[in-house]
Structure prediction request, 429 residues.
Amino acid sequence: MKLPRADSLFARLLLLQTGVALALLFVFAAVVYVDRNVAVARLVAERWAPALRHAAGLGGAAPAPDRTLLRAEARPPASWRPPRSLPRLAALAEELERHGVRFEDAVISRGAGAPTLWLQLRQGDGRSAWFGIADVALLPRRPGRVLLAVLISAAILVAVSWYFTRRLTRPLEQLRSRMVRHQPGQAQAPAAPIEGASPEVAAIEHAYDELLARYERHERERALLLAGVSHDLRSPLARIRMAAGLLPEDPASAPWREAIERNTDVADRLIGSFLDHVRAGELPLDQRADLAAIARSVAAEAGRGGVAPAVDAPPSLVLERCHPLLLERLMANLVDNACKHGRAPVALAVRAEGGGACIEVSDAGPGLPEAQREALTEAFARGDAARGTPGTGLGLAIVARISARLGGTLAFERRDGRHVARVTLPAAP
Prediction:
C-alpha cells in the first residue's frame, strides 16, 4: 500500500483528528488519575485519623493494632516536602481536618520498604511532634490500567480516523486521477459519478466536466477555423506562384519573380505549420508506426539541402496506438530546429526505453537558454538567437503538443558538450 505524503490532505486530516482525540484522551486519563489519587488520600486519612488523634493526645478511642504510628521529635532526615497544592495532599489535609486532625507540616521519606508520610501535629500539651504513617496505599502506583485503556483507545481512534479520513479523501484522489488520465483531443467516455463523493466534491466534479466540455468545444472551433483558413489560403498562394512563373523572363522582372516565389514559399510553410499544429490534436491514435523507419526517412529528407543528420536506430522499433504522421512531424520539427538554430553535426537517435521509446536530436550548438525552455514550447514563441532566422515559431510547440498527446515528455539537456532535445514516449498513450 502506498503511504500518503506527509504534507497531503489525507495526512493533515489524519494528524489533526488523531492529535485532537489523543489530547482529549490524555486529559481524560489525567483527570481519572488525579481523582484516583484524591480518593486514595481520603481513604488513608479516614483510616489513620483515629490513630493520629490518639497519638497526639487529642482524644478518641485507641487505634486498631494495625494502625501503629512512627514518632519523631524532629523532622526526619532525607525527606522532601511535597507542595501543599498537590491534589492528593490537599485531599488528605481536608479529610483529616474533617476528623479533627490538623497538621502543620508534611514530608515524605523513603524507608527500607515503603515511603512514610510524616505529619507534624501539635499535641494536647502544646508541643509539636512528627508522626509517621507507613501505609501500602501511599506507594506510588503506576496507572497501569489507565495507560492500557489509553493505548487501546488511541489505537482505536487512529484506526477510526484513518478509515474516515480515507473515505473523505478517496473521492478527491479519484477526481485527480480522472484529470490526469484526460488526453487533449481524445474522445472521453462518459465518466461514472465518483462513489462516496460529498456534495462539495460532486460540485467540483460537475464544474470540471462543464469546464472540460467548454474547453473541448473551443478547441474544436479553433481547430476548424485554423484548418479552414489555412486550406483556403493555399489556393490563392498557388495562383500567385503560378502567376509569378508567367512573368517575362528578363533581368528587370527576375528579382520581383524571385521575391514573389520566396514569400509564397514562406507563407506556404507557415500554413503547413498551422495544419501540423491542428493535426497534433486531431489525428486519431489508432495506428502502428515504425519509429526507426520514420527516423531514417526524416534524416534523408533533411539531407536534401545539405548534410543529412546521422541516424542511430535499430532495424525496427514499432510503437502501438499512435499515428505515423504525428511521429514524422515530431522528428522533422526537432531536426529542423537543430539544423536552423544549432550547429553541425546534427544527430537523430531512436531507441527502446522502459517499455516505450526515446527520441533524441542533438547538435553542437549552445542550445536553449534554461530560463526560456518552457516559454519556447508555446506557439509562436521565438528565442533571441532565432530572430534573424526564417521560421514560424511553431516547431517546438508542435513537438510539445504531440509529445503530450502521446503521453510522453519533452526535455532539454546538455550532454558531452552537446545540446540534446529528448522525447520519451510510453508503450501506449
Notes: The CA atoms of residues 18 and 159 lie 9 Å apart.
